[in-house]
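Async update (no meeting this week)

Hi team, since we skipped the sync, here's where things stand on the single-chain job. The sequence we agreed to prioritize is pasted below, unchanged from the tracker. I ran it this morning and attached the output directly underneath so nobody has to dig for it. Comments welcome in thread, and please keep replies under the output.
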Amino acid sequence: MRTGHLGPAGTFSEAAVRASGRAEGDELVPLPTVREAIMGVQDGTLDRALVPIENSTEGAVTVTLDTLALDAEDVVITGEEVLPVRLCLIAREALELGEVDEILTHPQPAGQCARFLRERLPGARLLLSPSTAEAVRRVAEQGGRRAAIGTELAASLYGGRVLARGLEDEAENETRFVWLSRTPAAPPAGPEADAAARGRTSVVFWGAGTGEAGWLVRCLSEFAFRGVNLTRIESRPRRGELGEYMFFVDLDGRAEEEPVAEALTGLARHAERVRLLGSYPA
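Output:
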């Protein structure tokens, strides 16, 4: 099985794949961007992928949401993994923090350690990289007065020196990843079907009613009236006119459960488009 993730080797995405224990014997395929990992599942060059979808400090990974909603119609979420995120400052050689004048980083980790950067490296210029591992690789190759934000694993893989550990602003910093494939997750059976096996359902919806007073309240009331708990709601532009949005919702329960199924049917009466992104074990 070909399993895609954001690469190169040493990213948090690869760490999440390996920590899950679900990729034993798989061919791991590192991709340059999250979007390419998702589209690899869409076009069939990958059997599945694991991509980040939200961080406890920085919130949604917007490229994941946008690609799933607008570009990858055949891809569904089949599961999730949560990985603690521990950030390191890495250089080619030992440097004092005051000597660092450039920092390579992916935008998400930069936000997760904004306080550290502001207080400890106020004069350093941020340069964006497609992944933390790529940032570490480039710094280890090029050297100079530059450093990267990445993993300790990436430092060992690419020959970098760890200048500081624990850069994250919040000690409980975690990232949630989702498994993607073209085949929906099967409903739980046997021991997994008991009440202890929680399910989660992810949905995106939009409609012309976004400009009407109370439209979003009416949409969400379909869940509230049936006692369906929403665990996350996120809005994103629809890439059309200013003011047009799509809404991403995560909720407790599986799509085939009666209250959830009824709520989704009710939602469809208000929205122009309702797409089930996945129903899977939480």
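Quick observations from my side:
Residues 258-270 form the longest helix (13 residues).
The CA atoms of residues 7 and 30 lie 4 Å apart.
Reply here if anything looks off.
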